[in-house]
Amino acid sequence: MSTALPAVPVRPTAWQRVQRAWVRAVTAWPALRSILPFVPLLAAWWLTAAFEVFPKAFFPGPVDVARTFVDLVYKGILPEYLADSVGRLAAGAAVGIALAIPLGVLIGTSRRAHTALWPVLLFFQAVGDIAWLPILLVWFGFGLTTMTFVIVYTVLFPVVLNTVLGIRSVPTDLTRAARSLGASPARVVWEVLLPGALPNIMTGLRNGLGYGWRALIAAEIIVGTSGIGFLLFDARRAGSVVEIMLGMVVLGVLWYAVDAWILAPIERATGQRWGMVTRDR
User: What pLDDT band is residue 191 in, cutting at 50, 70 and 90?
Assistant: First the structure.
């Protein structure tokens, strides 16, 4: 007779232990999943600066940028400039959205409005936002009005185009059913078309804010007297590469945080709510 040997427990390897620890950490802090892709980039940056592949004056390392960040925050310069940029983006985006959604609904629901306005919309979409700056400087000078116009102009088109697409994607059976039940045209728009178009509107809003953020920085570089774009341009005049790199890092980190942790979840939740995508299991 053969006797069964007791099972010997298999000890996990070091790599398996690291994987399990990572899964536990990500479960506890989901933000780590968003940060991980930047670790190799940060390591490459640090190694390139540490081995002085380029002169340190032209390629400062992450430690130098971090020191400059602490210094500008302590002096109050960076928080003030950042607040100026975010405030301008919020004001311009609010005006752009307030104009874009009603215009998109009008073009999407009215054949006459589509015929009259769609060619004009495509024409002005082809004229880049920065192309307006020379004439805006003549009209309004160096000020908030010029930068606000650029943001509104940039945000307007993605939201309008996606709103029209969303309105026209709503099945006609839904609108006919609502009308047959006695719904007025306004109720059809409010209770059928807008909810159906909301996922597309959120996509347009996400894209429009991204374009508006870049346009704002470009406008601040050219016409601004404050803001992150002005910080970059002022650092260029002073020859401070470390401040330029700090401004670039702040731009990327801020927008990534807003897009990944605010806009993308809202867009995903909107799509799940109205049946455009399925929830991950």
Answer: confident
Q: Chain-centre distance of CA 122, in angstroms?
A: 23
Backbone angles phi, psi at 47, to 5 degrees: -65, -40
Contact 108, 115 (CB under 8 A): no
Pull the structure tokens for residue 164. 């029209």
* C-alpha distance from residue 29 to each of 22, 124, 258 (Å): 10, 44, 17
Residue that has been written with the tokens 């969303």 in this structure: 166
Closest CA to 109 of 177, 183, 197: 197
Q: Describe the crossing of helices 194-223 and 77-109 by its angle, rounded to 10 degrees.
A: 140
Contacting residues for 236 by C-beta, under 8 A, at least 6 apart: 244
Give me the residue label for tokens 């509104």.
152
- Per residue in 198-222, pLDDT tens? 888 888 888 888 888 888 888 888 8
Q: How far apart are CA 109 and CA 107, in angstroms?
A: 6
Answer whether 203's CB lies under 8 Å from 264's CB. Answer: no
Cα distances from 175 to residues 34, 108, 152, 160, 195, in angstroms, run: 41, 13, 31, 21, 12
Place of tokens 């406008």: 219
Q: Which residue's structure tokens are 């998109």?
A: 104
Is there a contact between 143 and 226 (Cβ–Cβ < 8 Å)?
A: no
